Amino acid sequence: VLAGVAISGFLAAGIFQQVYVPLFLICISTAALYGGGVVFNDVFDYQLDKIERPERPIPRGTISFGEAATFGTLLLLIGIIAAFLISVLSGIFAIAISVAALVYNKFSKHHPVVGPLNMGLCRGLNLLLGISIVNAAISEWWFLAFIPIIYIAAITMISRGEVHGG
């Protein structure tokens, strides 16, 4: 997200005096969105983790399934609200990131092509979230989102082989 902020020109001399609140909000937004995605990864993997990773917090009973889902939802909402406090466009990107993360965790994670592309989409949207701190910058720099989409998709595909011993 900070790369997107840098690309947007937000830190240019003319804007610098008003940087603190939006920059704080964009960091809160991305951290909460990421955290919500991580929590929902564990929520959606609960049944598998009961068998393969019983030491994880939900299968172990440290936190209930419902508490985890509630916490994940709260984190996503915090991320969305913080983004909307910057602009409507930033809020829309935060919603898109939330949807992409949920789709990844629930449906596409185990698909060999769609999963990595979906993960890359999350990262590309996060770059756009950073750029959206200056709404006008999106029309100029939107295409840069393809870089993390392709890069993260490739890294995710490669790492799958490592996880499974390939």
Topology, element by element:
Layout: H1 2-8, H2 20-44, H3 46-52, H4 57-60, H5 65-86, H6 88-108, H7 114-131, H8 135-141, H9 146-163
Helix pairs in contact: 1-7, 2-5, 2-6, 5-6, 6-7, 7-9
Structure overview:
It is a single chain. The protein has 166 residues and is mainly alpha-helical. The protein has helices at residues 2-8, 20-44, 46-52, 57-60, 65-86, 88-108, 114-131, 135-141, 146-163. The mean pLDDT is 93.
Brief sketch in words of this structure:
With 166 residues, this protein is mainly α. Helix content is 78%, strand content 0%.
Biggest sheet record = none
Oligomeric state as shown: single chain
Strand content: under 5%
- Could you list the spans in which at least 5 consecutive residues all have pLDDT below 50? none
Features:
single chain; 166 residues; mainly alpha; 9 helices
